[in-house]
Write a structure and sequence with these properties.
242 residues; 2 domains; single chain
Length: 242
């Protein structure tokens, strides 16, 4: 009788031990998957902070070159080793102090979370981040418009083949000299773009300090149908990529 009882107890306990091992293996798999996912997220954040950052286009200001919902890849190494932004480059920059007044802050935790998501291209960029085309660099004289309705840089007419069809170079006339170390930037869809022209009467005069440039937009990553390098400015556009 004792032997039968002992066998019966062993029979009931065996499945419980097997179930415990299964739960342990299942839990371990989830733990490994979580660690792998966390490592990938950290790698992508480091990559976006120092090398290439995805950037979600939130507005129509750069049409037809860039459209709402496009995801572009910003080359953060483009100006890291002595090169400077050139006329015709499409750049992402921090507009704090030039396009957006300083001292405007919100919830630090929310801003940090949003910053991480936008760095991965999963959320719209911060309100202080902008994407525009460089029209004038330090030392340039930029005038709009001449008798033929074109922008002139250093008295040379600029052929802006990238402009939105039907747009004029600018309905707002201006004549400026770009200070050294700064940029004059404009959107390709001039009638839909708030750019350097809109900040002429403010401190800084609409100029963007070169050190505020995050990087150069070199590639279109999404949608797949338009995947590839960003079209370069044509001849007579006032500059080309280095």
């Amino acid at each position: 009788m004792d032997t039968e009882a002992e066998l019966t107890q062993r029979g009931h306990s065996s499945p419980e031990k097997g179930e415990g091992r299964s739960r342990f293996v299942f839990s371990g798999s989830w733990r490994r998957a979580g660690l792998l996912g966390g490592a990938c997220a950290v790698f992508l954040l480091l990559l976006s902070n120092f090398v290439v950052q995805p950037f979600l286009i939130p507005s129509r200001s750069m049409e037809p070159t860039l459209k709402v919902g496009d995801r572009v890849l910003v080359n953060k190494l483009a100006y890291r080793f002595g090169d400077r932004p050139q006329r015709g480059d499409v750049v992402v920059f921090d507009g704090t102090g030039s396009f957006v007044r300083e001292g405007v802050g919100g919830n630090p935790v929310g801003e940090a979370l949003h910053g991480a998501l936008s760095a991965l291209g999963l959320a719209e960029p911060a309100d202080t981040d902008f994407v525009k085309r460089v029209v004038g660099v330090g030392g340039d004289d930029v005038v709009c418009c001449d008798t033929d309705g074109r922008i002139r840089v250093n008295d040379v007419p600029v052929t802006e083949s990238y402009l939105f069809p039907g747009d004029t170079p600018s309905k707002v006339p201006f004549r400026i000299r770009v200070p050294l170390g700064t940029l004059w930037v404009m959107g390709d869809h001039r009638s839909q773009s708030r750019d350097s022209r809109d900040h002429l009467g403010e401190p800084g005069g609409g100029m963007v300090p070169v050190e505020k440039v995050v990087g150069r937009v070199d590639w279109l990553g999404w949608p797949v149908s338009r995947w590839g390098s960003l079209p370069e400015p044509g001849p007579g556009s006032g500059g080309s990529r280095g």
